[in-house]
Amino acid sequence: xTTAAPQDRHSALVESGVSTRVRVAVIGGGIIGLASAWQLAxxxxxxxxxxxxxxxxxxxxxxxxxTPSSEATFGQEALLAASTASAGRWPAFAADLAADSxxxxxxxxxxxxxxxxxxxxxxxxxxxxxxxxxxxRAVERLPSRAARRLxxxxxxxxxxxxxxxxxxxxxxxxxAHALRIAITSRGGEFRPLLARPELRDRRIVGxxxxxxxxxxxxxxxxxxxxxxxxxxxxxLAAGWATSGLAAHLGLRVPIRPLKGQVLRxxxxxxxxxxxxxxxxxxxxxxxxxxxxxxxxxxxATSEDVGAxxxxxxxxxxxxxxxxxxxxxxLSEAALVxxxxxxxxxxxxxxxVVGPSGVDGLVVAAGHGRDxxxxxxxxxxxxxxHVLGLPQPEHADHFDPRRFGTQEDE
Length: 409
Ligand code: GLY
Prior knowledge:
The chain is α/β, with parallel strands linked by helices. The protein is 31% helix and 24% strand. The protein has helices at 6-15, 31-42, 58-61, 77-101, 119-134, 144-150, 172-185, 242-247, 313-326, 371-387; strands at 23-27, 46-50, 65-66, 112-116, 140-142, 160-164, 168-169, 189-191, 195-200, 203-209, 229-230, 233-236, 256-266, 276-281, 284-290, 296-299, 334-345, 352-355, 361-365. The longest helix has 25 residues, at 77-101. Bound molecules: glycine. Residues 63, 65, 260, 299-300, 343, 369 line the site of glycine. The site of glycine has 7 residues, from loops.
């Protein structure tokens, strides 16, 4: 199928007098769909977000870390560059969102301590420090006694610590709430509907009601069958479900669910932690993310088990064990929530953002562990793709067409 450049399409619409306002349907109301819809609305587009449960998936589970350095791994230079660029966008993104929504966005910028539980775990820290030094990232090695001066609640038995200053966190649920308000305040609409791209005459003309595999027909709203949302451009931002929706159109977008189980604890005393604490605990990773309301988010498993949303006893046990080993007083905290989210993971760990190969359809999905972190850069890239503007730097590795077509399989 052919793809007209978005700019050509926009110019054609304006010249024909059909529309001076690009209509965009965004399928999926997770952090990526919401951030994209908001930036599109700010750019003057008329947006409709279609999702039966806005911000109810991976966004609801996410800890909200904006931590490009501590999550960096060897061989992922493109992801590190994009993550760093997006982390740099977060302060302005948060300030604009606060202004548009009227809600404060609590971007906590205290940085990360990466700690080791034992001497083998120290090797993990040493490897991370070497990686960050290779890419000229600021990282400081501290003896654990000095780490406890920064975070007195840390266990006295830790084997080592890295300080990574330039990292932050937000509460994704609050950000999603603010995005909903900001989109609405910019004239955007929400439709609580399971939707898929609507193909007509070899191009996508909007979003139409989809049938859940478990249902025999589309759920009626009142007595009427839900109607399509017509659009000049449709953005497919449906997380791990993107793969199946794209396959309907003959597109190959390999995104699989990668389960993450996450806990929320409420310690008896406020301010147990100030910084994000990431730890290697006898070869297993755990992270602790403090919120300004006193809660501590503890995550996360990484399970390649398909679309299984269950919370398991073993995962809760392991997360609690590791969290308490690093911060012993968390044993007194109330366990207020256990959640499982399904991250949208790709084979190369890079997201899938850009023209799909079918006219009228842009994809924005596959952000894996980095949805919150990469939301600002992704939203900028989506605006550029929809309106035919230059791509932001570092988003060029996200091209959905890098996986070829279904025919190549
Ligand atoms: N970014 C943290 C996680 O996905 O668990």
